[in-house]
Design a protein that fits this description.
The protein has 14 helices and 15 strands. Strand 7, helix 7 (187-197) and strand 8 (202-206) form a beta-alpha-beta unit. 38% of the residues lie in helices and 15% in strands. The structure holds pyridoxal-5'-phosphate. Residues 97-99, 126, 128, 175, 179, 206, 208-209, 229 line the site of pyridoxal-5'-phosphate (PLP).
């Protein structure tokens, strides 16, 4: 299969589909967007669709054609999302945000589990799962144990979970990709290991940082819950997308008395939110069709995932090793990269520090040159990764497949000024 870079005109066609690719409308100036882990670029189509549905007064579930059209949009988006996620069973639903969905899934799983169990997760996790598991394990009066992630590789493995999972583990959480190290986790292997020791365990996965990098395959993971934040995968803010297994669907949850069984949605849905997610799935299909024009919808999505991975690998490789005559990060003696240089788990993200310049100063230096990155501080979001490394902060440079090698070179030139 060829790559995005090898296909003439494709990177431009990709960039044309996104809003504000290289110009910030708030700062009113050109910029390189390397803050994709904070929120990916938004498809132009998402903006158009949102504006359209925001003006429709009709509600769902009424006996008129407009109302039926809205319900069809929601049902289509659920079916589209199921193809993107490769989820042939269970249900897709929306909530307030990825965090809210994770809290809800974890709360319902923990409170409906056997009282003598335990809850496990890992130190790699974002507080969205860690805080929820800690809180609800406390309320249920069961222990919450954490697998300790590997500081050198920036990820967590079966061997780490092996130390904490017991036959009595009732709920386990896994992060798919760390938003601080940028390294992915082998969810399938960890879930299989948990099931081998605790077959009935509810396994809930935070897919929020992973989703934009393609390669979503819930059927293969054998899990019970998965959450994503659409604004991190080319849609917009204001909602989260959750998937739950049939087993988790039937566990006790908040619902209207005498309402439809198994409904996890609370209140009237925003049809526009659902519609924007269909646009995201269409985008993945369009991208995949550049490589697999005759494939099924799912095959196109898989092809898109591979193309995304290859492009992101090319971008991070150029950043780390240099491009053309621009020295890379490995040539800058004062720069340290979290998780090592050629880490196979890396998903488009490079977290770095400078021996003599603070992360805040580096980010400002890059800002001044029109390059948007982000400081991660050792706070409640990133302390779990930075504290064990003895760091108070780092610079997070997060890329996506629509970024270009030229943008990486601009970044390297700006950083080389400090050498
Ligand atoms: C891995 C991960 N989990 C959870 C969250 C929280 O997502 P949200 O604020 O969209 O609910 C983030 C946000 O950065 C994240 O990267």
């Amino acid at each position: 299969m060829s790559t995005i870079a090898q296909t003439p005109g494709l990177l431009k066609a990709i960039r044309d589909r996104f809003a504000h690719v290289d110009y910030c409308p708030l700062e009113e100036k050109s910029r390189v967007f390397f803050e994709n882990a904070g929120g990916a670029l938004t498809l132009k189509r998402v903006g158009e669709i949102s504006a359209h549905y925001a003006t429709i007064p009709d509600n769902q579930g009424r006996a008129n054609e407009a109302s039926k059209a809205l319900v069809n949009v929601i049902n289509k988006a659920r079916a589209d999302a199921a193809i993107l996620l490769n989820a042939k069973s269970g249900q897709i639903f929306v909530g307030e945000s990825g965090t809210e969905l994770l809290f809800r899934m974890i709360r319902n799983a923990v409170l409906s589990a056997k009282p003598e169990g335990n809850v496990v997760g890992s130190t790699l996790e974002h507080p969205a799962t860690r805080s929820a598991a800690k809180r609800w394990a406390g309320v249920a009066k069961v222990p919450h144990h954490l697998a300790i992630h590997n500081d050198d590789t920036g990820t967590v493995t079966v061997a780490d979970y092996d130390r904490v999972v017991t036959p009595w583990t009732t709920v386990a959480t896994i992060i798919h990709t760390s938003p601080v190290t940028g390294m992915s986790v082998d969810v399938k292997a960890i879930a299989a290991f948990i099931r081998s020791r605790a077959p009935e365990c509810m396994i809930i996965v935070d897919g929020i940082q992973h989703a934009a990098h393609g390669d979503l395959d819930i059927d293969a993971y054998d899990i019970d819950g998965y959450a994503i934040s659409p604004y991190k995968v080319f849609s917009r803010h204001g909602y989260g997308i959750g998937w739950i297994s049939d087993k988790l669907t039937m566990r006790a949850h908040d619902e209207l008395d005498k309402g439809p069984a198994g409904n996890w949605e609370l209140g009237t849905r925003d049809t526009g939110a659902y519609a924007t997610f269909s646009a995201v799935v269409e985008y993945f299909e369009w991208l995949g069709s550049q490589f697999e024009p005759d494939g099924s919808r799912r095959q196109k999505i898989i092809a898109a995932g591979k193309a995304i991975k290859a492009q992101e690998h090319a971008l991070t490789h150029a950043m780390l090793h240099g491009a053309d005559n621009c020295p890379g990060l490995i040539d800058m003696p004062d720069i340290n990269v979290i998780g090592g240089i050629d880490n196979p788990h890396r998903e488009g993200l490079v977290a770095l520090t400078h021996d003599n310049i603070s992360a805040a100063e580096l980010v400002e230096h890059l800002n001044q040159r029109g390059i948007r990155t982000h400081v991660r501080k050792a706070d409640h979001y990133s302390g779990n990764i930075l504290d064990p490394l003895g760091l108070d902060s780092c610079v997070r440079v997060s890329m996506c497949h629509y970024n270009s090698i030229d943008e990486v070179k601009q970044f390297l030139v700006a950083l080389n000024e400090l050498q």
